[in-house]
Amino acid sequence: MKFKRFISILFVFLQTAGMIWMAPTALASSLHLVSVGDSIPNGYGLADPETAYPVLLANRLAATADFLTEDGKTSTGMLADLKKTNYKSAIRQADVVLLSIGGNDFLSLLSYTEISEFFRGNPEGLYQLANGGVAILSENFPKILGKIRTLNKDAVIVIQTVFNPYAVFQAFTVLGIELSSFMDTQIERLNDIIRSYAEEEKGIYLCDVHDQFQNAKDDSFVNAAANPLNLDPHPSLRGHQAIADGIWEVLLKAGIAHPDDKGAFLQEIMQPEEKEPKSEPEPEPESEPEPESEPLPQDRNQTNVEQDPALLYKIGGGALLGLIVLGILFDLSKRRK
Fold first, then answer.
1. Cα end-to-end span (Å), the chain
2. Cα separation of 114 and 120, whole Å?
């Protein structure tokens, strides 16, 4: 009888110990990630939405996820969204919240009048618009963080700076004004606001995407290019992988992610794509006409613009600015003649 009782007690002890031992594993597998913000985390322009950086991170973390992102989102729109039931519910369950907002606070204010005057040597109007965008983000950003923290006191919040999509246009100067330098100055004014709210001791971590892109000096991180001309300001596939790498480092610091042997997102995902063209050099000319049969991103974007004309960069963001600039240059050349 004593022996049977001893065996029963031992069995209960081992069973309890096993449950305690398994608890960390169960906790790790229940990680929930929420991504909120604009078209950058929304994967605008990507051939496959599953390669947007929030999806890459959720898959790597084996996390459940809510992707509450939308093209054209401003900080004012973000504040309104945080009152919605689905946003509240998602954030309350989150272990990690990724926040990308701010770029559209400047882009959404651009108009033909101020831009044309700027490139005719009268920059005051455009600078006033830039000041307006900075003022809007300065007022809204702390409110956004406050609402997220009110909904969830424990989640790790990762805030991201805005990168300069036109760093590649350093040689593009009109009337002594360099486009890349002007854009970077205004974007950094937004970023100064974002950086000022990073407080790791309060669970708010910074992923400085701007500096990450600038220091990498890799033009392939963004869609914008000088040759052939492309003024789309959004990140490319490589750009999304780079952002995922940057946020992964932040999550390691926050104790959310754990070191593994999978390597960086850029190395892991790009290697197969780089090998394919080398193994088939001759079929490439035959495959050139195929992109003409892929008008889906353009058709989709045109429809969205018709539904909401205020979302400037749904047709390429910087493309609108670029087309206006080119028109002004043409106008100036005619006048000189």
1. 111
2. 10
